[in-house]
């Protein structure tokens, strides 16, 4: 963190420092232009930053009751399922990092959805042709075995303090007594973010009461979800993966969604396991940055972008300058080229994890970055790589959620959770939506006889972009927890926010609010309606193909320094950082 800056003052909301507990003002501020004002929040004991104030408050209550970061995380996730159903929930999957502050130990957990054992590389083909992404996503076909509940139970068994059932209380109460519909949820329904929403009866009745889209400000109840949560609170994960909830999920995938049925079975449900995996870490200047390994590409690709820029002395440029955006875009191109070729579920294909984040390899790759745009980057040859894979081009769309939590003991949890598309498969079971996460696989299994690493295989997990991250100082103290939704742009959002803090010395709110520039090995996207859009001409002069568009991140992060914690929440969503 090199220098204090004020230069972003025009581009980001002014950081108004306050010690906030639970806000007394209106639950949701104006969201008219899809942006709200967010202020830096300071705290000395603990902090929760999530995509919805109900969820952040639930997390705080758990910590006040003596709960740990993981206890709070479970309450946050369950409340998010209710109040932000378009983004995540128990019908989906997640990746998380857990920092044990006493043992100074970092663990990472994979709760990613799995393909049914009956699925194969032809899952998304009809009459020998790939289906369109829009045809594939709604219904049962793309529903993977949900992983959130198994992952939460696993982490809770290892690191939880409060009883499992206590963590369900807030979500059950809000489901029974009602919650205020957020402007973001209402807009996602009204704007038909997922055109298939309402295709199935239960979903239609829930999101279109009296035939009209659910309105912002309305108090909404979800008693079916309360019943689902009661069962899981009493029985644990087996209450979800076995018995009548599992049967309802399989029935919905195969029968309710008979127009586009899936292949899920009760034994797929019963056999699901969340997995603890080694985190992926690398040094970056005075820091150590750690993310999640395969099956997400997030950890490796964020690290690649950072390492490709490590010697470029980014701090010499203004954050919102043509030079900085150019360098960031070039690093993005190189990293996404490797991502497309090598990254997939390492339980099924050989992913050269160490090679992809190898310092010498990335130093060589960084030499490809010049003063002009490099055009389309091709994948490199990392040490120990099987280079026979073909690139995969599975598209990912914005929904998903991220939250970061630090508890009173300094333990931390950083979790990105998703049902894939907004409203997932649009199939609703017992008060929650099922994911369409299998559309993150490549729809083709091979091309010209060569196999694609991220093809569908039975029991495999689709490649993700989710990038929960933690950053440590040289003494192994946690200094930042961060992550974002945003489909495959997640990687850009997270890398850029980390650079904001590590290179440009921004506070976490400034780094989150900073207008976006993004490159995924194609054109450079600039965030519409912000100062970033003013970089268009300058980048075009360097050969970039530029589009100015909405870039809908949902970054929720916490930094820890000598003077305590600071929390930030994304102005592009309706969340809140809360702390004490
Ligand atoms: N399905 C995406 C992934 O796992 C996330 C979707 C999103 O962020 O909207 O990478």
From TrEMBL:
N-terminal signal peptide: 1-23
UniProt entry tagged with the keyword Secreted: no
Residues binding L-glutamate: 112, 440, 464-465, 487
PTM: Cleaved by autocatalysis into a large and a small subunit.
Example of a GO biological process term: glutathione catabolic process
Keyword tags: Acyltransferase, Glutathione biosynthesis, Hydrolase, Signal, Transferase, Zymogen
Record's keyword annotation contains Hydrolase: yes
Pathway connected to this protein: Sulfur metabolism; glutathione metabolism
A molecular function GO annotation: leukotriene C4 gamma-glutamyl transferase activity
Family: Belongs to the gamma-glutamyltransferase family.
Name of the protein this chain belongs to: Glutathione hydrolase proenzyme
Species in which this protein is naturally found: Leucothrix arctica
Gene: ggt
């Amino acid at each position: 963190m090199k220098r204090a800056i004020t230069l972003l003052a025009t581009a980001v909301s002014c950081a108004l420092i306050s010690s906030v507990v639970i806000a007394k003002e209106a639950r949701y501020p104006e969201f008219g232009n899809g942006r709200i004002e967010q202020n830096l929040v300071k705290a000395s004991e603990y902090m929760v930053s999530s995509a919805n104030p109900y969820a952040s408050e639930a997390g705080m209550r758990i910590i006040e009751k003596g709960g740990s970061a993981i206890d709070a995380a479970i309450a946050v996730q369950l409340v998010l399922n209710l109040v932000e159903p378009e983004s995540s929930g128990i019908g989906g999957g997640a990746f998380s990092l857990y920092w044990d502050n006493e043992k100074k130990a970092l663990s990472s957990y994979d709760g990613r959805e799995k393909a049914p054992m009956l699925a194969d590389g032809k899952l998304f083909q009809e009459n020998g042709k790939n289906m369109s992404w829009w045809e594939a996503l709604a219904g049962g076909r793309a529903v993977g075995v949900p992983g959130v509940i198994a992952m939460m139970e696993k982490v809770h068994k290892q690191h939880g303090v409060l009883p499992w059932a206590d963590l369900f209380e807030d979500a059950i109460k809000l489901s029974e007594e009602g919650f205020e519909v957020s402007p973001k949820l209402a807009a996602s329904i009204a704007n038909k973010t997922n055109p298939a929403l309402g295709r199935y009866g239960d979903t239609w009745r829930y999101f279109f009461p009296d035939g009209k889209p659910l309105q912002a400000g309305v108090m909404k109840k979800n008693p079916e979800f309360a019943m689902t949560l009661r069962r899981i609170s009493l029985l644990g994960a087996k209450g979800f993966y076995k018995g009548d909830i599992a049967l309802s999920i399989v029935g919905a995938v195969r029968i309710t969604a008979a127009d586009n049925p899936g292949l899920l079975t009760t034994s797929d449900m019963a056999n699901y396991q969340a997995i603890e995996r080694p985190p992926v870490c690398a040094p970056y200047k005075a820091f150590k940055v750690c993310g999640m390994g395969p099956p997400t590409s997030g950890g490796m690709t964020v690290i690649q972008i950072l390492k490709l820029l490590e010697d470029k002395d980014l701090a010499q440029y203004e954050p919102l300058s043509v030079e900085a955006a150019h360098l960031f875009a070039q690093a993005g191109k190189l990293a996404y080229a490797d991502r497309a070729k090598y990254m997939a579920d390492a339980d099924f294909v050989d992913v050269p994890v160490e090679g992809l984040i190898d310092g010498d390899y990335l130093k060589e790759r960084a030499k490809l970055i010049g003063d002009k745009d490099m055009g389309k980057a091709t994948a490199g040859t990392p040490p120990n790589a099987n280079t026979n894979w073909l690139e995969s081009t599975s598209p990912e769309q914005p929904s998903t959620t991220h939250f970061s939590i630090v508890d009173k003991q300094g333990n931390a949890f950083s979790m990105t959770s998703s049902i894939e598309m907004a409203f997932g498969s649009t199939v609703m079971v017992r008060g929650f939506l099922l994911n369409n996460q299998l559309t993150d696989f490549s729809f083709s299994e091979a091309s010209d006889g060569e196999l694609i690493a991220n093809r569908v295989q039975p029991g495999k997990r689709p490649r993700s972009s989710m990038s929960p991250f933690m950053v440590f100082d040289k003494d192994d103290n946690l200094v930042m927890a961060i992550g974002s939704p945003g489909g495959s742009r997640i990687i850009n959002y997270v890398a850029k926010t980390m650079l904001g803090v590590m290179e440009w010395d921004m506070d976490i709110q400034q780094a989150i609010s900073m207008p976006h520039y993004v490159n995924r090995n194609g054109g450079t996207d600039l965030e519409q309606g912000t100062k970033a859009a003013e970089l268009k001409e300058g980048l075009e002069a360097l050969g970039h193909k530029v589009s100015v568009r909405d870039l809908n991140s949902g970054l929720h992060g916490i930094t820890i320094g000598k003077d305590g914690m600071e929390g930030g929440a994304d102005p592009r969503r309706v969340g809140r950082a809360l702390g004490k």
